[in-house]
Amino acid sequence: MTDPLPSPARSLVVVSAGLGVPSSTRLLADRLAAATERHLSDAGIVPAVRVIELREHAQDLTNHLLTGFPTRKLQEMIDAVVGADGLIVVSPIFNASYSGLFKLFFMSSSGTAWRARRRCSPPPGARPATPWRSTTRSGRSSRT
């Protein structure tokens, strides 16, 4: 009997759009990443986790907004997010919406890169007031 082939490493990118230091948004992102890493490891999948703290790249994001050209560092972050096997994104909520830093980052990435990506629904027990959106492959958005 042969041993099963080892599972290839999977990339998991965690994006935190918290503004403070320390940030409760980052704490939540770290907890979600640890739970996901544990679950994947139990399933025999080796996760390669990368955390992106948007607050640290606010100047690059602003420059991209003003010039239309991302810096090398910002382009690497966008490529990592778009090419990730898994993505955990956490943003604080201000005035019933996500943070401007969060929106700015995802506006910086190409909209067409997200169309073929699979999205998941909110966790069980999410409050109806929570602005979760489940997006189908066709790109249509529906409130869940």
Relevant terms:
alpha/beta, three-stranded parallel β-sheet, Rossmann fold, globular
Distance between the termini: 47 Å
Helix amount: 25-40%
Which percent band covers the strand fraction? 15-25%
Q: Overall mean pLDDT score?
A: 77
Question: How many E strands?
Answer: 7
Q: What this model shows, in words?
A:
- With 144 residues, the chain is an alpha/beta fold.
- 35% of the residues lie in helices and 22% in strands.
- The chain has 4 helices and 7 strands, in the order E-H-E-H-H-E-E-E-H-E-E.
- The strands form 3 sheets. Strands 2-1-3 form a 3-stranded parallel beta sheet, sandwiched between helices. The chain has a two-stranded antiparallel ribbon with strand order 4-5. The chain has a two-stranded antiparallel sheet with strand order 6-7.
- Helix 2 crosses helix 4.
- The protein is globular and about 45 Å long.
- The termini are far apart.
Brief description of this entry?
The chain has 144 residues and is of the alpha/beta class. The protein is 35% helix and 22% strand. The strands form three sheets. Strands 2-1-3 form a three-stranded parallel beta sheet, sandwiched between helices. Strands 4-5 form a two-stranded antiparallel ribbon.
Describe the SSE topology.
Blueprint: E1 9-16, H1 24-42, E2 46-53, H2 58-67, H3 72-83, E3 86-90, E4 93-94, E5 97-98, H4 100-108, E6 133-135, E7 141-143
Parallel strand pairs: 1-2, 1-3
Antiparallel strand pairs: 4-5, 6-7
Helix pairs in contact: 2-4
